[in-house]
Specification:
The complex is a heterodimer of chains A (80) and B (573).
Chain A lengths: L1 H17 L20 H15 L5 H6 L3 H12 L1
Chain B lengths: L3 H5 L10 E9 L4 H13 L2 E7 L5 H6 L4 H5 L3 E5 L2 H10 L8 H19 L3 E5 L20 H18 L3 E4 L1 H8 L1 H4 L2 H7 L8 H15 L6 E4 L10 H4 L12 H17 L2 E7 L2 H10 L12 E5 L3 H12 L6 E4 L3 H10 L15 H8 L14 H15 L5 H7 L2 E3 L1 E2 L6 H10 L12 H8 L4 E10 L2 E13 L4 E9 L8 H15 L4 E4 L13 H4 L3 E3 L2 E5 L10 E3 L1
Parallel strand pairs in B: 1-2, 1-3, 3-4, 4-5, 6-7, 6-9, 7-8, 10-18, 14-15
Antiparallel strand pairs in B: 11-12, 12-13, 13-14, 15-17, 16-17
Helix pairs in contact in B: 2-11, 6-7
């Protein structure tokens, strides 16, 4: 349940930052699946997520995720 | 201030119809987001910035290769962004014996970059100065040590200011001040830097972009010229009509210090050439009393160009102030503590800037500092005289009402004009007027000091600077004409602009007589004029027609053979 909520919030952030209403994220979504999600917008998404969840990722974490699920796991582990 | 994500939505807007400006951005760190922030912020200010971005870390390659993409793009503005982080990296790699040469070496590099740009382009240059990094190698002792990074960085920022006083087309954009305002924790975000090579945080981007666009707007003639002040609880604490002159808070009374410091700020703006006007709901004599009698008042009546105190609606009063000063509403700032008055003015006067002053007067100044309302790209001694000029204008208006015949009035003014080609004394003022004149400006071509120096040395251009004085005072340099030789028979009016404060004095006729005589002496047979419309120069739409030029194929021609000298009341000085 907690994970679903986080995914929902992250999805909203993606829609806002990438300015694309049609984005639907799942755990398995990768950068290849989402238009405009490149290394530059990635950092914008990261900063927006940090603000929303009031946390800070380490630089290594930011580079480590291979899909949305891993990103969500990281958010949840920090919010405990 | 919009966030970067909000700003980015502007990029999808329709930019057509906005003024286009070709900008090249060259940086030694990644600048993709800065490009987006600049273009999006430019949109809000009414500009379509067409930005060419150099590839990462290509400054030298682009400027030292005469056939580079930079020169092919031919921008009118070049933005250079050397980051403090790359400077630190350079320092880190250099031999300890060379630490103390860091600033000097970088300055030489900047100098040669600027020369290379100036040898190929006729562009203005914006250079971001260096935001501070304390590498904590020497602690506070760094201040005492020329080899420390802090010493070198601050020296560089100081030397940059000095350099920009010498290079006319170089403008420093003060990144260091921005970091001072927000702190390094906001300005710089390690994860962004490590992952993208960008040195500006996402949060600070809109502010850097705004600061840059402020400079660009000033370059394009958009700057604030006038501050209109409310009085009660804006200029002093309390209500003069209720509390009386002994009880208003200023100086040492109550929170008077906040108002005293606010007044000093206004006074500095006045000394810089910003026109100060008062618009207050008060009885005039009561409102003026503190200015005349209160020992702690910093502002005095002779600081105020137009003083309006009555019980009418403030929007109407501001329209009245505008009609006296003859400047656009978009060059005015209205400061009032009362949100109700602010809203009325904001809703009724399009274009005027009305800052949301904080509730606590102690916060006024700190808040106003952050808005950077008074960006400019020029400053001359005449700026300091401006208030007097407008006060004198008010006297002339009173005299004019006494004469029924306009010729008699003009004659009574005893007007004299000095006509000179551009020279080293008048060039700064000519350049400034070229940047500022919007309304009485036939072609609105903006010339910088360096452009003007080139023109004045050319054989194909004839330059004229006109002053005007009368029995009330000296208006200084108020009109400029640049003529270009087109053929042996025809000379073209490349530029004609005039200060609006000398309208209706026959100055246009005097100018035309002068240039017509000159053209005849040079053997020309006709003068050609052109009107290029802008949002602001409708006033001179029929200028050439009114002066007797004939419309031939959408251009205006004056046949010198049939030209009759116009009657004027201005004598040559």
């Amino acid at each position: 349940m907690e994970k679903e909520k986080a995914l929902e919030k992250v999805n909203k952030i993606f829609i806002d930052v990438l300015d694309n209403e049609e984005i639907v994220l799942s755990d398995a979504t990768t950068a290849n699946d989402v238009e405009d999600w490149d290394s530059l917008t990635h950092i914008q998404l990261v900063v927006a997520i940090e603000r929303e969840f009031n946390l800070r990722f380490t630089s290594m974490e930011i580079q480590s995720w291979t899909n949305v699920g891993e990103m969500i796991d990281c958010i949840i582990s920090k919010n405990k | 201030m919009k966030t970067f994500s909000q700003l980015k939505k502007n990029l999808k807007q329709d930019f057509s119809g906005l003024k286009t400006i070709k900008v090249a951005l060259l940086g030694d760190s990644a600048t993709q987001f800065l490009v987006q922030a600049l273009r999006a912020t430019g949109y809000e200010a009414g500009y379509d910035l067409q930005i060419w971005e150099a590839d990462f870390n290509q400054i030298e390659r682009q400027v030292f290769d005469p056939t580079s993409e930079l020169f092919e793009f031919n921008p009118e503005l070049v933005i250079l962004f050397h980051s403090s982080h790359k400077l630190l990296a350079k320092y880190n790699k250099s031999k300890p014996a060379h630490y103390q040469l860091l600033a000097e070496n970088r300055l030489e590099e900047i100098n040669s970059i600027i020369s290379a740009i100036n040898s190929q382009l006729n562009a203005k240059i914006i250079y971001y100065n260096y935001s501070e990094i304390n590498d904590s190698v020497f602690g506070n002792y760094a201040n005492k040590l020329e080899v420390s990074f802090q010493f070198q960085l601050r020296k560089l920022n100081y030397e940059l200011m000095k350099l920009s006083t010498q290079v006319a087309n170089l403008y420093v954009c003060d990144l260091s001040t921005l970091q001072n305002q927000f702190g390094k924790m906001v300005n710089f975000q390690t994860s962004v830097y490590i992952n993208t090579e960008m040195v500006l945080s996402i949060d600070v981007l809109p502010f850097v972009a705004k600061e840059t666009i402020d400079v660009i707007a000033a370059m394009n003639g958009h700057s604030k010229k006038c501050v209109i002040l409310d009085l009660d609880n804006t200029v002093w604490g309390g209500i003069i009509g209720d509390d009386g002159i002994e009880n208003i808070q200023i100086g040492s009374l109550g929170i008077g210090k906040a108002f005293t410091e606010f007044q000093y700020w206004i006074k500095k703006l006045k000394n810089r050439g910003i026109i100060i006007a008062v618009c207050s709901k008060n009885t005039e004599s009561v409102a003026k009393e503190p200015f005349e009698k209160h020992p702690d008042m910093v502002l005095r009546l002779d600081d105020i160009a137009v003083f309006i105190a009555n019980w009418e609606n403030k929007a109407d009063n501001i329209r009245h102030i505008q009609s006296i000063l003859n400047i656009g509403f978009d060059s005015m700032v209205f400061l009032d503590d009362n949100p109700f008055e602010r809203n009325i003015v904001r809703e009724n006067i399009p274009g005027i800037t009305v800052p949301e002053l904080p509730v606590d007067p102690a916060d006024y100044l700190e808040y106003l500092y952050t808005l950077n309302l008074f960006e400019t790209i020029s400053y001359s001694n005449e700026d300091t005289e401006r208030t007097k000029l407008y006060q004198v204008e008010a006297q002339r208006t009173i005299l004019q009402q006494k004469f029924t015949n306009e010729d008699e009035f003009l004659e009574s003014l005893n007007m004299l004009s000095l006509v000179e080609p551009f020279n080293k004394f008048n060039i700064p003022r000519v350049a400034q007027l070229s940047q500022r004149s919007n309304q009485f400006n036939l072609r609105t071509i903006r010339y910088t000091e360096s452009d003007i120096e080139l023109l004045s040395n050319s054989d194909n251009f004839y330059t004229f600077a006109f002053t005007l004085e009368d029995k009330f005072g000296d208006n200084g340099l108020i009109c400029v004409v640049i003529m270009k030789k087109e053929t042996e028979k025809k000379v073209f009016i490349d530029t004609w602009f005039m200060s609006c404060r000398v309208l209706k004095r026959g100055m246009e006729h005097f100018v035309l007589n002068t240039i017509a005589n000159f053209a005849v002496e040079k053997g020309f047979e006709m003068i050609q004029g052109e009107y290029l419309p802008t949002a602001k120069n409708e006033m001179v739409k029929d200028h050439y027609q009114n002066l007797g030029f004939e419309n031939r194929d959408n251009t205006w021609i004056l046949d010198l053979k049939s030209y009759k000298i116009k009657k004027v009341f201005i004598n040559l000085k």
